[in-house]
Amino acid sequence: MDQPTLCLSLLRDLLDHSDQLSRESDNSLLELLRTLESVSRLASLMALTVAAEADRRGVPSQHSCSSLGVFLRRLLRLSPGESAERARMARALTESIDESTGTRYPPVLPATATALRTGELDLGHVRVIARTLAALPLTLPDQVRRDAEAFLTEQASQLDPHQLTAVARTLRTRLDQDGTLREEQDAVEQRELHITRDRRGRTRIRGVLDAEAGAALQTAIHTLASPGPAADGRTDPRGPARRRADALLGLAHHALDGGGLTSGVGERPHLSVTIGFTQLRDVAGTGTLERGDPITAQSVRRIACDAQVIPAVLNATGEPLDIGRASPTVPEPIRRALAVRDGGCAFPGCDRSPSWCNAHHIRHWVEGGDTALRNLVLLCGPHHRAVHHDGWQVRVVHGRAEFVPPRWVDPTRRPRRNAGPHDFSRFDAAS
Ligand SMILES: [Zn+2]
Ligand SMILES: [Zn+2]
């Protein structure tokens, strides 16, 4: 009998005698679980190795399959996604041979391939590692790429794939600032919220938010969702899900009642971001949102621009330098004066009212810009982004905000202004 068949019959034998498990000690049950998991992991790796060998020999095309993925799908009755993923992993984890020259190429993921043989890694880990490395920029030096793979492989031996994903994301943010910023911006474009009614007249909510928006929503909801005071000695009977729903409703009422979530009345909800001072000043590196999501320094600068954020600015050794005061609060009188001057978002063509706007520091406070009218301009969320990320420049000329477009928008870079009340006043006489 060949070895895999022997292995299979041994496993069947084990299953047939599973009634004897009741006699095993707890410890031997744990040991058995660990061993069987290693067996299944090694079997998966072996299956990928066999698939890669079949692929090298051209077996898929002999069976009129256009790719290894299609071949695996038909042979093993796998879903299209699963078979394509296995084909990708088979290639990444085994060496390839150029048939015409006979040259052998090492696996794309050599460290992962080696670690897999110990049975410590699961294919779930490999997926995370493969995806992360594939997403890194091609310009990255080979050595950095190898270091990144080794780092993730080492982490994978201590973390589950879900936890590894978080580590991989942080690593990627560090190695690929541009790509991560692009992704952050794509995630903003992909924000969506669906509000539908079901047959019983209830409202269903479904949507997707980018990390930053998610953190803002979470913070706002979390602030309002704490259990109510136990007035009669009883604890709040509402479960966490119910309290979150009530909190969302609270937010809606607050906005509708004219509390104006960003009007500066009372303590505004805060979003916590941690970042090193030099990273923030030099716009390099990454910060961390409250829930551990990495975020580019460029985005931290934007959200730290107004007072809705508590930046925990760290010194060179990573100790908090100053928490909560580093971002200067725009005082209410200045905010009101800004609302009068700009009338709302000052960006050309925008009509968002002041309560939807951030007070943007034209010269960032981290560079010594002061919190004074001449250095501030009101911008709504999307236009605040445009100014921080899309190359628009702002200046205040004769008490009015003026925007210089990036070259790709206007090669001559002619300044633009939002039409304010004074622009329309000359039409008053005509009417
Ligand atoms: Zn700003
Ligand atoms: Zn705007």
TrEMBL record:
<dbReference type="GO" id="GO:0004519">
    <property type="term" value="F:endonuclease activity"/>
</dbReference>
<comment type="similarity">
    <text>Belongs to the Rv1128c/1148c/1588c/1702c/1945/3466 family.</text>
</comment>
<dbReference type="InterPro" id="IPR002711">
    <property type="entry name" value="HNH"/>
</dbReference>
<dbReference type="GO" id="GO:0003676">
    <property type="term" value="F:nucleic acid binding"/>
</dbReference>
<feature type="domain" description="HNH nuclease">
    <location>
        <begin position="333"/>
        <end position="385"/>
    </location>
</feature>
<dbReference type="InterPro" id="IPR003615">
    <property type="entry name" value="HNH_nuc"/>
</dbReference>
<dbReference type="InterPro" id="IPR003870">
    <property type="entry name" value="DUF222"/>
</dbReference>
<dbReference type="Pfam" id="PF02720">
    <property type="entry name" value="DUF222"/>
</dbReference>
<dbReference type="Pfam" id="PF01844">
    <property type="entry name" value="HNH"/>
</dbReference>
<protein>
    <recommendedName>
        <fullName>HNH nuclease domain-containing protein</fullName>
    </recommendedName>
</protein>
<dbReference type="GO" id="GO:0008270">
    <property type="term" value="F:zinc ion binding"/>
</dbReference>
<feature type="region of interest" description="Disordered">
    <location>
        <begin position="410"/>
        <end position="431"/>
    </location>
</feature>
